[in-house]
Specification:
20% strand; five-stranded mixed β-sheet; alpha/beta; Nucleotidyltransferase, domain 5; 3 helices; elongated
Length: 143
């Protein structure tokens, strides 16, 4: 029996499934990179700065929200009063034992008064933490 070679099509690589997989991987890696920027706090309207950079290391996050004449304070998304802030930070300091102590990142709303910000900074220093950074939003980016 003789087979006809003309009826057998040459093998070919289908490109559509390959393109689908490449786009799926692209979406996965974009989502993974965006999830590296972890902010343990409440949403606030941060001030803008041209030198703001993305922080990726683990730190204690303090959020200061403006609430009329007073402020709302959160330590890693847990509400706390100004009077109990230094005690809360001392307990966090013992949990996250490091050679230099944990870093404190302050996420303050841009409408928070200077006096309120300094009261929080005083409480942080009273708790024995010295690595403090004020967080800002990079210029040109919006939420």
């Amino acid at each position: 029996m003789k087979l006809s070679r003309n009826s057998i099509a040459p093998p070919r690589i289908e490109m559509m499934p390959l393109i689908d997989i490449v786009f799926l991987l692209l979406v996965f890696f974009i989502y993974a990179m965006l999830s590296l920027a972890v902010h343990h706090g409440q949403p606030v309207d941060l001030p803008q700065s041209s030198s703001a950079a993305l922080e990726t290391q683990e730190a204690i996050g303090i959020t200061i929200q403006a609430a009329g004449l007073s402020v709302n304070l959160f330590v890693d998304e847990e509400p706390v009063s100004l009077e109990l802030l230094s005690e809360q930070l001392r307990s966090k300091k013992t949990e996250k034992q490091d050679d230099q102590g944990p870093e404190v990142q302050i996420f303050a709303d841009k409408t928070v008064s200077y006096q309120d910000l300094f009261q929080v900074l005083d409480r942080i220093k009273q708790s024995g933490l010295t690595r403090i950074s004020l967080q800002a939003e990079a210029e040109g980016t919006t939420l």
